Sequence to fold (977 residues):
Amino acid sequence: MPLLEPKPEDLRPGARPSGPAPDRVADRQSGGTPEPLRSELTRLLGADKVLTKISDLVRYASDASPYRFVPQVVVVAEDIDDVSAVLSYAHGKGREVVFRAAGTSLNGQAQGEDILVDVRKFWAGIEVLGDGSRARIGPGTTIVRANATLARHGRVLGPDPASAIACTVGGVVANNASGMTAGTTRNSYRMVSSLTFVLPSGTVVDTGDPRADEDLAHAEPALCEALLAIKREIEEDAELTRRIRAKYEIKNTNGYRLDAFLDGDTPVQIMRGLMVGSEGTFGFISEVVFDTLPLDRKVSTALLFFPSLPAAAAAVPVFNEAGALAVELMDGNTLRASVSVQGVPQDWAELPKETTALLVEFRAPDEKTQAAYEKAAAKALEGLELIAPVASVTNEFTREAKTIAGYWKARKAFVTAVGGSRPSGTTLITEDFAVPPSRLAEACEALLELQTRHGFDAAVAGHAAHGNLHFLLAFDAAKPEDVERYAAFMDEFCRLTVDRFDGSLKAEHATGRNIAPFLELEWGAKATELMWRTKQVIDPDGVLAPRIVLDRDPKAHLRGLKTIPKVELIADPCIECGFCEPTCPSEDLTTTPRQRIVLRREMMRQPSGSPVEDELIDAYGYDAVDTCAGDSTCKLACPVGIDTGAFMKTFRHARHSPREERTAALVAKNFKAVEASARLAVAAADKIGDRLLTAVTGAARKAVRPDLVPEWLPEVPAAAARKLPRTARVGATAVYYPACVNRIFGTPGDVSLPQAVVAVSARAGKPVWIPNDVAGTCCATIWHSKGYDEGNTVMANRIVEAAWAWTGGGRLPLVVDASSCTLGIAHEVVPYLTDDNRELHAELTIVDSLVWAAEELLPHLTVERTIGSAVLHPTCSMEHLGDVGQLRALAEACADEVVLPDDAGCCGFAGDRGMLHKELTESATAKEAAEVTSRTYDAHLSANRMCEVGMDHATGRSYYSVLVELERATRRGAARA
Fold:
């Protein structure tokens, strides 16, 4: 064991509920996957594709729903052969299989109790076909990622669910999820051109293949015959046919798409329709070809406030008739709860309870059409009863992108913002239903009355244009009386929706576990039995996703409800939505932010010292704490701003011994000498050679601790010059602070980053001054990222005091040349400052060098030469600071072609974490690196030295600061390329 290996006990929860939770994982499951399941699947697929630890099973047990089922094993399928092998194994052994991609489903569709197959990691990718009117997309591709590629062709997918940042194409099609604008005409059922899927028998069907029906008839003759028999039976029943057609006049995802039997003429055509919305119960969708839609870029949007729900609902048809693409409703409770979302006006918290808002948006292909829509919108506003109860309300249409994005951010955060403000320890259930749009106001009022009568907080939002409403229920699943209250509500709600409104019990979230018992209530006995027959025909052995769409148990929706034990305050609001996961550098390596919280909650469910808790804690150190990059991009993706990176840093701090804390503080106090020594060591390393250094550091890591001793990487740059460029204080327009990383490590080429910043500033007539005592100072991120609070406090206060003196008490801006250091000095040091220094900090103006160059220098510079192409790596700190636009602007001044990779994300290098755990950077950058190395570029640009080193390691290309390229581009006398 390494000398300074942390004790797992340091991660054991302290205070916890009075007793173990009723849904805790049982002690007998502490060993993970049982035999012979473990060894049989390992032999079949290989150990790297079979996850068997109890910590793996627990982290996959939760999705965005109120349910929790722990699988027996998790298989990470890499290709169709793996899927077919698992299905064949399940058939032979009488086992069950559930497919899971993003896990953003709201009704338990991504959970299984036996074999759970992860079909996200290896299933991403998009191929644009022709002019972009169609696209072939892998099921593990997020909607946002697919649309990023399509946008370059002026196209977009039809479905646009609020979870688009995280949900995948496979899940969207399997649930027929639609979203804000899709309605009944732009959803997957209408927009899917063809599918490739694997049936439970292992037969692969490509509905786009001209020979598909011939091949299917040869492989599955009984299936084809049975599908056509059901088609004839439906078509011969005129009343049933009318009923089916009527059910899909409004949004409906409850049960199977029986209209597929009416719309399809052949078995393959019928299966293409049935697969949409089948929730993984008919087969695995391995590829989707979508018909895409024009991306209308001219947008006009308004957030309109009304005194009541009826007043807002009455305005919906007015905007529909005017041509609005989206009309979204938010009631008063929803509006007030959304103030927890960054960017939402804080005065919304003071809105009267009865206030209701409509988010109305028009999209047009050109200026002329946009003007016509705005004219129609202005006419629609005439005579409406609008109110402005708080100062931020304007009730006006705008074209301003930032304002529009803020409106949509508030709307899309309905589930997480309202759910995040629920009482601690309560389970959240998200329901959606649809009624004829003409009865929207009546349905809203009936729902709110029902919620109030059953003791639930009343809140409603939805796609008003389509009569589709969403609501939330929060209760404690550990309390039988709360579960009974939920059951009573659901019984009355379902009857209300069906009997009074003839509505859809599921409009876009799919049946799932909580509506399965009510399927017959909506569809009637005959249609429901046809659905059971269809399932029997396609999956006669019941291998795929049992109990997710069809369940004869009237209390099935009460089974598997998960408790939500209280955890640390920073993570407690999490509703496990999964929005954070695609941004996480360790997503494909160990755990995600959601899974880190899920695992912590299971620890809290356990009695202290249980075998399950012991196993979870043993795995948590590496899987959760060590391999967290701490970049906090999860906070940006989380609608309620949970910073799991900061959460993990608290655990790093908890694992430090008092001696380690004292040592870290000593390093901070003597950082001038440490900095000089580090620079000398890097210089000496150039003469020693990579092979020996790798061996030496590898041995030290084994002897001491991998999380303390960095591993030498060949990409580590040469040492920086001992002296910084000469500058003058007199006449300086800003103080330039070269970050310690740029004082230790050098820059590729003939000009260092400090030289470049000084040169371009002077050329623009904005000279900068480098103080002569910057050595020994730091942004404190070194200590902050590792959880060394004492050292962090020392350096945080030192840098603020120094910056105060350098800038003349805040008179000049402080320009920082590394984005992570800018973020550290501007924001992250604040909690560690003394009261006096916090006051000094408030008067400082901290400016990232990207902003300085793009906004202050570039307008005064003359570009003398450009390069042909440049690819960018925006760092996570740039995302936090909002500097990505400035990075692009600078690159566009220097290069004729600038590419921002669609898969760009945090590199996971995180200062030196990529040297402590290089596997983190290799995993985090895999997709971006593949994109970057697929072609050649003249320059690879970023603005953070260690992130550049990480990208060097990932791609084998040389990354450097965009400011260095700006200096070359504006150097007088240089020839234009």
User: Anything to note?
Assistant: DSSP finds 42 helices and 25 strands in the chain. The longest helix spans residues 480-500.
